[in-house]
Amino acid sequence: MSLALEVYRVCRETADAHGGGRLERALLAVGELSAVEPDLIRFAWEAVLADTDDVGASLEIDWRRAHQHCPWCQEPKERIEGGWLRLCPDCGRPLDVSGGDELDILELSFTTNDDGRRDQAIAGHHHEAGAKDEP
Q1: What angle is formed at CA 114 by the lines to CA 110 and CA 116, rounded to 5 degrees?
Q2: How far apart, in whole angstroms, are the C-alpha atoms of residue 63 and residue 43?
Q3: Domain ranges within the chain, ordered by starting residue
Q4: CB under 8 Å to 36, separation ≥6 — which residues?
Q5: 22 versus 127: which is more confidently predicted?
Q6: CA 7 to chain centre
Q7: CA–CA gap between residue 130 and residue 32 (Å, rounded)
Q8: Does 1-65+100-135 carry CATH code 3.30.2320.50?
Q9: Measured between alpha carbons, how far is residue 77 from residues 31, 32, 102 in Å?
Q10: Is the pLDDT of residue 90 over 70?
């Protein structure tokens, strides 16, 4: 819930800095290693917005996969379902893992107070995550 509240706070501040108005849509990049479950943050987002003027604004998730590569075999390696074994299944050496830790507000859509037109602001706000392309 606290993560959804923080995402909302940043979105609200960004909209207010660009003329204010009602939030319509936020696009959030979520890496599979970020320990954020897309369905849970969407549910929390709805709960956070329930008693605000922004109720009904959507939270869309841009799921980001992590990639494993064996520097010794010189090949990408697939993740074993159900976990992240960071050893190459072929040679047993440590794998390099890249990506999958994203947690960024990529885009925000809102209606401005001044003329009712739609406006978009790229927030580009990054949150460090504890350790998801959507399954």
Answers
A1: 50
A2: 16
A3: 1-65+100-135, 67-98
A4: 3, 30, 103, 129, 132
A5: 22
A6: 9
A7: 11
A8: yes
A9: 18, 16, 20
A10: yes
Q: Report the distance separating Cα 108 and Cα 22, nearest Å.
A: 11
Phi-psi group of 19: left, alpha or beta (phi > 0 → left; psi -120 to 50 → alpha; rest → beta): left
Is the model's pLDDT at 134 over the cut of 50? no
- Residue from 113, 68, 119, 114 nearest 91 by CA: 68
Residue 133 pLDDT more than 70? no
Give residues with Cβ within 8 angstroms of 27, minimum separation 6: 60, 61, 62, 105, 106, 107, 108
- Show the tokens assigned to 64: 């980001």
Q: Report, as an integer, the average pLDDT of 74-81.
A: 82
The pair of three-digit structure tokens given for residue 38, joined into one six-digit string: 């897309």
| DSSP state, residue 127 | -
SS (H, E, C) 28-71: EEEECCCCCCHHHHHHHHHHHHCCCCCCCCEEEEEEECCEEEEC
- Furthest-apart CA pair in the chain: how many Å? 62
